């Protein structure tokens, strides 16, 4: 769960720049941010404030009208509403809300698996400054993978291109087992967009690093910082997948021993080898055996790679959550295959 003290830093890392709505640029796609893991709504509110300038001022009370909208139903215009059980008066309110949402140039989608958490966060946003920022947020309840797939399907119906395009400018994941969702989240993220992962444990961040490396996802690690009390700006961590020096050294020794063994085999005779070089060959053979055993063990440990997880030099370790920041780059592999 992300607390207010850390929400401001997270928003600053996204480097959001919005401008007031301009009729001449209405064709531009809106800036859309996904927060997966609504929690109590602290980050939701900070994101809504950050994008507020991009949206027109509503001519009605968004809080009053938003009670008639179900953010998990998608209308033909791509706006989330539902009116199957509304009275005629409520349908007018829902229509007003849909019309306003279709004019927005910046949107925060916040998703939580718990309807109780989502309802609580909705109240937090609605009660802050009389709901000034409530119209910038769409609340959703459900699973992240299902939500992304639903959005792709709904948007494909309104797009003329055969290929469904990414639609999210930034993504923030605050979920258990986050690494399981990274690949699908990356597919919905614009190039140069930010993927932020918040986890309470550094080992959860390392799983994300390994997932991105093993699947060769088009994400480049920007930074990993530790969040916590008295950590203005966060403390940076060094997290990466490496091949241990011991393994590299053992491989070099193995190659050297193979060269020695090859030279011995091409010598004058086996008898001469036994008389003059019996001990060196035996030592080399023992080293080669140990190297082979170590190599087999390292192969069982994901190709002999290990994770480095440590604070930057000269800094003490304290508690707090961890934030991984990735930038999406162009998928050269997909471009080359096409």
Beta fraction: 15-25%
Number of helices: 12
Order of secondary-structure elements: HEHHHEHEHEHEHEEHHHEEH
Largest sheet: 9 strands, mixed
Total strand segments: 9
- As laid out across the biggest beta sheet, the strand order is 3-2-1-4-5-9-6-7-8
Poorly predicted tracts of residues: 73-86, 275-285
Structural class: alpha/beta
Q: Ends: how far apart?
A: 41 Å
Query: What oligomeric state is this?
Result: single chain
What would you call the shape? Answer: elongated
CA-atom Rg in angstroms:
28 Å
On the 0-100 scale, what is the average pLDDT?
76
**Helix content range of the residues, please?**
40-55%
Would you give an account of this structure?
This protein has helices at residues 4-14, 42-51, 62-66, 88-101, 115-127, 144-156, 182-187, 202-215, 245-265, 270-276, 278-300, 332-337, and strands at residues 31-36, 106-112, 137-141, 168-173, 189-199, 219-226, 235-242, 306-311, 322-328. With 338 residues, the protein is α/β, with parallel strands linked by helices. Strand 2, helix 5 and strand 3 form a beta-alpha-beta unit. Helix 1 (4-14) runs parallel beside helix 2 and helix 9 runs antiparallel to helix 11.
Could you list some keywords that capture this structure?
alpha/beta; 9-stranded mixed sheet; 12 helices; 9 strands
Task: List the SSEs and their pairings.
Blueprint: H1 4-14, E1 31-36, H2 42-51, H3 62-66, H4 88-101, E2 106-112, H5 115-127, E3 137-141, H6 144-156, E4 168-173, H7 182-187, E5 189-199, H8 202-215, E6 219-226, E7 235-242, H9 245-265, H10 270-276, H11 278-300, E8 306-311, E9 322-328, H12 332-337
Parallel strand pairs: 1-2, 1-4, 2-3, 4-5
Antiparallel strand pairs: 5-9, 6-7, 6-9, 7-8
Helix pairs in contact: 1-2, 9-11
């Amino acid at each position: 769960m992300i607390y207010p003290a850390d929400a401001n830093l997270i928003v600053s890392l996204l480097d959001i720049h919005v401008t007031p709505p301009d009729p001449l640029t209405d064709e531009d796609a809106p800036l859309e941010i996904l927060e997966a893991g609504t929690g109590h709504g602290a980050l939701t509110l900070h994101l809504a404030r950050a994008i507020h300038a991009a949206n027109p001022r509503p001519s009605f009370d968004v809080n009053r009208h938003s009670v008639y909208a179900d953010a998990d139903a998608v209308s033909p215009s791509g706006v989330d509403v539902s009116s199957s059980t509304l009275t005629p008066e409520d349908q007018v309110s829902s229509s007003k809300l849909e019309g306003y949402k279709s004019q927005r140039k910046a949107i925060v989608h916040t998703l939580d698996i718990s309807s109780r958490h989502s309802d609580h966060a909705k109240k937090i946003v609605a009660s802050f400054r009389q709901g000034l920022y409530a119209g910038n947020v769409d609340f959703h309840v459900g699973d992240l993978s299902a939500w992304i797939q639903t959005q792709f399907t709904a948007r494909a119906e309104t797009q003329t291109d055969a290929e469904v395009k990414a639609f999210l400018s930034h993504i923030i994941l605050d979920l258990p087992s986050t690494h399981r969702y990274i690949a699908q989240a990356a597919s919905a993220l614009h190039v140069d967009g930010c993927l932020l992962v918040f986890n309470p444990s550094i080992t959860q961040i390392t799983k994300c690093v390994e997932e991105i490396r093993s699947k060769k996802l088009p994400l480049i690690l920007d930074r990993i910082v530790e969040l916590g009390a008295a950590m203005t700006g966060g403390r940076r961590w060094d997290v990466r997948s490496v091949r241990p020096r011991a393994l590299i050294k053992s491989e070099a020794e193995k190659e050297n021993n193979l060269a020695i063994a090859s030279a011995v085999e091409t010598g004058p005779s086996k008898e001469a080898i036994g008389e003059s070089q019996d001990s060196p060959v035996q030592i080399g053979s023992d080293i080669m055996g140990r190297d082979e055993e170590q190599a087999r063990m390292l192969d069982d440990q994901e190709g002999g790679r290990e994770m480095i997880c440590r604070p930057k030099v000269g800094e003490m370790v304290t508690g707090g959550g961890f934030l991984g920041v990735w930038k999406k780059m162009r998928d050269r592999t997909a471009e080359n295959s096409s």
